[in-house]
Design goal:
22 strands; 624 residues; Elongation Factor Tu (Ef-tu), domain 3; seven-stranded mixed β-sheet; six-stranded antiparallel β-sheet; 18% strand; DNA polymerase, domain 1
Length: 624
């Protein structure tokens, strides 16, 4: 007997950050959606650190919000600390980050999903996929159910044949206290998919009551807090501090004594770990000349004593973890709540995906999150959102939704994955984006909300906010361009800021563009504060205007560069184009192009092994 008698439009396998965003997007676009997860209590669980955002990751969360996703809203509602990172640098580098209350984060996600129309949720483990020739037809569960759907999105995180390592102890699991998922990998490999193994790790969790915070360096949040969502979520008025300590040569020596029993060094772990989030043993090995490493002491919520020991990720034997951590300042009497561990899991090379995150081998099947070789909540959530949108548009027979590299960090993320693949867990950085001055955290709504509104995901309320923000920004910039200021009014301010005085009246815009001045100085100009109050100009508009005033030259230069790239982006390559007949390009290029099947000349140009001369030959073949 089939308990699910109707065919769903979309089935989402996995309830992590990718799964939550995928299910919400598909349902909010009007599709009859089912989210299947092993544990309804652990939806969007923060398996690793209790934080969202950071360098480049914060920009991604803002982009998710601008598109109508839930991650930023949940983060704002559950934050315990907020920081805007890199404020000393240019606005392209500013990145929001928030510490979250881990338990409230998962609770808030579940609440939002339960309030979403068109969305069903079901607790079971998916252990197989149902195919009809080269199309997906549904899923099979551990309970023996066959559930059918027009599209399926797999967001299995670290659960596919997951294996946990602590010292010499190894056991199956996708996360501490939860079992692994088996069957999906085997079904996909049988269909010709290329699978691999990756590894990630997590540090110990300890009891705050056993720590001496007076021996650590306090890390408070920003005095003036912001938030992630462009909606009317509240900014923090009260915050919890984090703290920082350091390892020492004594700690390193104690850790080294456990290397002979470390699964990393004995070869029991085959998967490749994240380069930019290494374990403590990896840091000691790779950076042997350093006699100390930072340890960030992060609270896991408002009302819990649990502490996340960031920077001490490890899979060493538990007794080694205990001995070494006790030698860190402030941890002398530490009590463990949970030991650190490493986890290995299956992933699939993302070059096997189209730009929509639909697989090339099986139609209507989508992958999102760590199954594609990424690491991080933010990268997973972004992929889930895009897979959910495209699965829904597919069901409705509409054109796919694809973000380009000059439109969003999400576009950079997906293009990097499907074009280059990855041999190690992929993490987003600002340096991966050629147009990061365009892709700032402050303008994600201006960039993306109109696009999302056009496909029916972003609400009219969101769109109205964007229109108002843009109109007020343009109005304030015009005021600065049109209004002059006299030397006697501005020179006292310029003298304070060690900026050259003026001897004649000048437009405010020109004065405001000087690097020595910020907009707090501009607000002291005559008539400015009056104009701000009259037109109800808020901090978001002021920030947008300041970036435009000070960086308009850089922004225009990047726009011109992006426009040139767009010409190549518009030159499509026919599906299943036969590169083997193009003998004028190199053998390596023919091999890579045949495997990846790029959609455009621009994408082809970014494939490793494809030279500019190869691209020129392809342009000739495309009639250009």
């Amino acid at each position: 007997m089939n308990l699910f008698e109707s065919t769903y439009d979309v089935i989402v396998v996995g309830g992590g950050h990718a799964g939550g965003e995928a299910a919400a997007a598909a349902a909010n676009l009007g599709c009859n959606t089912l989210l299947i997860t092993m544990s309804l209590q652990n939806i969007a669980q923060m398996s690793c650190n209790p934080a969202m955002g950071g360098i480049a990751k914060g920009q991604i969360v803002r982009e998710i919000d601008a598109l109508g996703g839930f991650s930023a809203i949940v983060t704002d509602k559950t934050a315990i600390q907020f920081k805007m990172l890199n404020k000393s640098k240019g606005p392209a580098m500013w990145s929001p980050r928030a510490q979250s209350d881990r338990m409230r984060f998962a609770e808030e996600w579940r609440t939002l999903l339960e309030q979403t129309d068109n969305l069903d949720m079901f607790q079971d483990s998916v252990n197989g996929l149902i195919f009809e020739d080269d199309k997906i037809a549904g899923v099979k569960t551990q309970l023996g159910l066959s559930i059918y759907a027009k599209t399926v999105i797999v967001t299995a995180g670290t659960f596919l044949n997951g294996k946990i390592h602590i010292g010499e102890k190894t056991f199956g699991g996708g996360r501490a206290g939860e079992g692994a998922s088996t069957g999906i990998t085997e079904d996909l490999v049988a269909k010709g998919f290329e699978a691999g193994r990756m590894k990630t790790g997590t540090p110990p969790r300890v009891d705050a009551r056993s720590l001496d915070f007076t021996k650590m360096i306090e890390q408070p949040g920003d005095e003036i807090t912001s938030k992630f969502s462009y909606t009317d979520t509240a900014s923090l008025t009260d915050q919890r501090s984090c703290f920082m300590s350091y390892t020492s040569p004594e700690v390193h020596q104690l850790l080294r004594e456990g290397f002979e029993n470390s699964p990393m060094y004995t070869g029991r772990i085959k998967g490749i770990g994240p380069r930019y989030c290494p374990s403590i043993e990896d840091k000691i090995d790779r950076f042997a000349s350093k006699d100390r490493h930072q340890i960030f002491v992060e609270p896991e919520g408002w009302h819990t004593t649990e502490i996340y020991v960031n920077g001490f990720s490890t899979s060493l034997p538990h007794e080694v973890q205990y001995k070494a951590l006790k030698k860190v300042a402030g941890f002398e009497n530490v009590k463990f709540l949970r030991f650190g561990y490493a986890i290995e899991y299956d992933f699939f090379q993302p070059t096997q995906l189209h730009q929509t995150l639909e697989t090339k081998l099986i139609k209507n099947l989508y992958f999102a999150g760590q199954i594609n070789g990424t690491t991080g909540y933010e990268e997973a959530a972004a992929q889930g959102l895009m897979a959910g949108i495209n699965a829904a548009l597919n069901v409705k027979g509409k054109s796919p939704f694809i973000l380009k590299r000059d439109q969003a960090y999400i576009g950079v993320l997906i293009d990097d994955l499907i074009t280059k693949g990855t041999e190690e867990p992929y993490r987003m950085f600002t340096s991966r984006a050629e147009y990061r001055t365009l892709l700032r955290q402050d303008n994600a709504d201006l960039r993306l909300t109109p696009m999302s509104f056009a496909i029916g995901l972003a609400s009219k309320e969101r769109m109205d906010r964007v229109i108002e923000k843009q109109e007020k920004t343009d109005l304030f910039i015009k005021f600065l361009k049109d209004t002059s200021i006299r030397p006697e009014d501005v020179n006292p301010i310029l003298n304070e800021k060690d900026s050259a005085a003026v001897n004649q009246s000048m437009k405010m815009f020109k004065i405001a563009s000087r690097p020595q001045l910020d907009f707090n100085d501009v607000r002291r100009f005559p008539k400015v504060e009056e104009f701000i109050e009259k037109h109800s100009i808020d901090s978001e508009v002021l920030e947008q205007a300041e970036v435009h005033v000070k960086y308009s030259g850089y922004i225009e230069k990047e726009k011109n560069s992006a426009d040139k790239l767009q010409r190549l982006e518009n030159i499509k390559i026919p599906i299943n184009f036969d590169y083997q007949k193009v003998h004028s390009i190199s053998y390596e290029a023919r091999e890579k192009l045949t495997k990846i099947q790029p959609a455009t000349i621009s994408q082809a140009s970014r494939i490793s092994g494809v030279s500019p001369s190869d691209v020129s030959v392809l342009l000739v073949y495309m009639g250009r």
